[in-house]
Amino acid sequence: MTRTDHLRRLLAYEGWANDRIFAAAQDACTADEHTARLLSHLLQAHAIWLARVAGGAAPTDAWQVLPWAELAPREAELRAAWLARLEADDLDRLIAYRDLHGNPWTTPLGDILQHVLNHSTYHRGQIAARLVALGCAAPVTDFIAYCRL
User: Which residue segments constitute the domains of the chain, with CATH numbers given?
Assistant: First the structure.
């Protein structure tokens, strides 16, 4: 399997896992601002990195809370944009950007995408823990569960 194929598979997994965690959070805990904040942050990070990769102005508020109704459609839009970028770009292309503190960095595109996917996994774990703490059921979002489909 090529690195592009692997990242394509991880993007598909990302969509599956996000759909599950978004549905569980919205069904059980719509009033929980902290959960909405984490879900929104997960998506804002995608948008920030996509803007950096494209060479445009990146959003500066990584913690902007989006309305519940916008979360799932925004996730699908961002995932499609990553997939298009993956198909059209070179994973070794160096991306020059500034982080949210203004520090300059240069990172290969493939490493950025891997970071974004890992970042999402981290926050899905936080969201799952939050759901359990609220007495809600947390869905299984493990990669191996996706592989078993």
Answer: 3-147 (1.20.120.450)
pTM exceeds 0.85, yes or no: yes
Tokens of 59: 């959003």
Which amino acid is residue 111, in one-letter code? D
Q: Which residue has the tokens 């759901």?
A: 131
Q: How far apart are CA 146 and CA 12, in angstroms?
A: 9
In single-letter form, the type of residue at position 128 comes to A
Asked if 128 contacts 21 with a C-beta cutoff of 8 angstroms, the reply is yes
Q: Using one digit for the tens of pLDDT, what is the confidence trace for 35-79?
A: 889 999 999 999 999 999 999 888 888 999 998 889 889 999 999
